[in-house]
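Notebook p. 47: complex prediction with heme C.
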Amino acid sequence: MNIHLKSPTVSRTRGSWTKLLAATGTAAMLLLAAGQGDAAEVKPIKVDDKSFKCLKDMVKVRHFYVDNLKGNRKATIAVAEKGKGDYPVGSVVQLIPGEVMVKQPKGFNAATHDWEFFELDVAKEGSTIRKRGFVDVVNRFGGNCFACHVKARPEFDLVCEMEHGCDPIPITRRMLAAVQKADPRCAKPDTLTQDDQKALDELGEVLKTMTMPSAPPK
Ligand code: HEC
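Predicted complex, structure tokens below:
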């Protein structure tokens, strides 16, 4: 009974595949070729200035913010909440307005586990990509994103948090929270409390003397 019900469906499916292949023969062959090619041929997710937004419009998990450029927010949030595992393609992770990690498709960059690192300039008008890349992006403090983040143990997919094995940064969570609140891209920025302002002043002092462990020679 079951078999009888199923067989017409199967042949119809096969029929439409044949038609589809006939119609898009060249495209299909190109796709196959791309699939067999090396990592350089994996099609990247398009990321431009408009891909980024005010932190408050992303989803906050613990002390950082996530989103997904492929509409797969749920899967990204699930990994972030779990606190370990591989982030899905399209994931966007931010701790402060000016630094972002975006997960490119699998096979894109083996060293960075397909994460692309971004440094942004942020202003009321929005974000401008200042630097982007894989193993060679250096932030405005002279630190190489990858050099620090790769030290996270494998189960954390290059996400550092505080105890994942990365070199620590001399910036406290209190300072980070104030920087997050002060994201200039937000339509309605939060009002900074006196304590936030104090944290920002303290951060200013830290930044004056901060050295990055992976700073390149000057
Ligand atoms: C000196 C080492 C170091 C450098 C350089 C560095 N980071 Fe991080 N990053 C960290 C640490 C440590 C944390 C976690 C801080 C915390 O949770 O309080 C972090 C947190 C983050 C997070 C939040 C998710 C996470 O991993 O916890 C993102 C996103 C991020 N960094 C992106 C970047 C980008 C992009 C660059 C380069 C433009 C960069 N970082 C440079 C050490 C570094």
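Notes: The pocket of heme C is lined by residues 64, 93-95, 99-101, 117-119, 137, 139, 143-145, 148-149, 159-162, 166-169, 173, 212-214 (CB under 6 Å). The radius of gyration is 22 Å.
Next step: compare against the earlier run before touching the bench.
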